[in-house]
Design brief:
- The protein is mostly helical and 443 residues long.
- The chain has one domain (38-222, 234-441): MFS general substrate transporter like domains (Growth Hormone, Chain: A), CATH 1.20.1250.
- Helices cover 80% and strands 2% of the residues.
- It has 20 helices and 2 strands.
- It has a two-stranded antiparallel sheet.
- The longest helix has 34 residues, at 162-195.
- The chain is globular and about 60 Å long.
């Protein structure tokens, strides 16, 4: 065999080795190469979202406990939380249409200001029967912040770094949640030693969290966002187009609504769960919530690796189902150590697929539909919480925690099953890459 013929036989092997090396690029190198492409606007947004997230986590951890220390029962607490969800659901669709036509920078700033004001009043007003207007304000303002995230990422990134940006955005909120939760617990302990009044200690700790979140106005103010282009502003969907695409929108809406309904039954009350079942203090509960936020953050970093191996749809479904055994453990156990471990692992698995689901939903529709679909997803989540949170609080007050856990598990299984049924055909593997088949021509 000549040298030339040898070369001809060897070249395919060499090419295959190079291809394999490229395909087996380490996850760390993949993250670094994508992170270098992040725009300044994207980085500023992540910093602002982190500070905003601290306020939100502080409020989520302490507000229930604050009301409980003041004598409120689970049913009353569920009603107040439901008003927050109702305010959020009320503006979900209008916000989506509005954000397609305006700059996102003012939206971020106003969302921060009104959310801080609403949370401040919720933390200060003593008449529980009149908390609902402030709850509505907090819910409506957080809606604009949340819905602005996906279009902000789409406007300020390219397809190469976009999956990482979505994961980092969710992960940054998880990390902020950990910092906010841990700090909230220590703040309550600190103020309690100086006031000897747990209600006041919770209130002052809430005030500190609001002050930290207010700092987000600095990075948000530094964002240099242009107004939407004339073409983007004019991308209005006609009613006939919306009706034609309604089957796809319902396929997105239904699993999210079922998932949110299950979550709303129990997730808002997990801090009270640790207080009532195990007698834990705010500081100890804050430590557990810090742990679960870190677990969620690590989970989001692992999400791109899952996607590359098994695809987006399987990642979303599998991680949701993997959280169920840990929810069963939370329902049954009377051992604190097992409850904390189950709490951490449930949070990690359940939230690993959420940024993947958001990114997937944005990619199965055309650009002009993304704002509407993002709003539909938010409406499904907050609308379900508006209905299920009050019901969950009443169930816990009358029957304890087991029944809400069982109902949540059933809804999670139904949600995951329908999601796979609806979307497994939207993705196929070509070589070593999972490719999304845009849903425009599938219905």
């Amino acid at each position: 065999m000549t040298d030339t013929s040898k070369l001809k036989h060897e070249c395919p092997d060499t090419t295959q080795m190079r291809t394999t090396a490229a395909e087996n690029e380490t996850w760390l190198a993949h993250y670094i190469s994508s992170a270098r492409l992040l725009s300044k606007n994207a980085k500023l947004y992540l910093v602002g979202a982190f500070l905003f997230g601290i306020t939100h986590a502080n409020f989520q951890l302490l507000f229930n406990l604050y009301l409980r220390e003041g004598g409120a029962g689970e049913s009353t607490i569920g009603d107040v939380l439901a008003w927050i969800a109702r305010g959020s659901a009320l503006l979900a669709l209008p916000a989506g249409f509005l954000l397609m036509r305006v700059r996102l920078k003012p939206v971020l700033i106003f969302s921060l200001v009104f959310y801080s004001a609403g949370v401040f009043m919720l933390s200060s007003w003593d008449d529980l029967s009149w908390l609902w207007p402030f709850a509505m304000i907090a819910g409506m303002s957080i809606t604009f912040f949340r819905i602005s995230g996906a279009p902000f990422y789409m406007r300020n990134s390219t397809p190469k770094e976009r999956p990482l940006l979505f994961a980092l955005g969710f992960g940054m909120m998880s990390l902020a949640g950990g910092v906010g939760s841990l700090g909230a617990g220590y703040l309550v302990a600190f103020f309690n030693t100086h006031t000897a009044d747990l209600v006041l200690a919770h209130r002052y700790a809430l005030y500190v969290g609001i002050s930290i979140g207010a700092l987000a106005i600095i990075p948000f103010s530094l964002i240099k966002a242009k107004r939407p282009s004339v073409e983007e502003s004019r991308q209005r969907l006609k009613l006939s187009e919306i009706l034609q695409r309604m089957p796809l929108y319902l396929r997105v809406f239904i699993p999210y609504f079922l998932l949110g309904s299950g979550a709303g039954l129990i997730i808002p009350f997990l801090n009270i769960y640790f207080r009532d079942r195990f007698g834990q203090s705010a500081g100890e509960i804050g430590l557990y919530f810090f742990g679960v936020q870190i677990a969620m953050f690590l989970g989001t970093l692992a999400a791109p690796a899952f996607v590359r191996k098994i695809g987006r749809v399987r990642t979303i479904v599998l991680t949701e189902l993997l959280s169920i055994p840990f929810m069963l453990a939370l329902a049954y156990t009377d051992q604190l150590g097992l409850a904390v471990a189950a709490f951490l692992l449930r949070g990690a698995f359940m939230n690993l697929g959420q940024p993947v689901a958001t990114n997937f939903s944005m990619e199965i529709v055309s650009e002009r539909e993304q704002g509407l679909l993002n709003s539909i997803m938010h409406l499904a989540w907050t609308g379900s919480w508006a209905l299920s949170t009050s019901f969950g609080g009443a169930l816990i007050e009358k029957h304890g925690y087991e029944l809400p856990f069982y109902l949540t598990i059933g809804l999670y299984i139904l949600s995951a099953s329908l999601y796979y049924l609806f979307f497994h055909g939207y993705e196929e593997k070509k070589g070593h890459v999972f490719v999304i088949n845009n849903g425009v021509n599938k219905l």
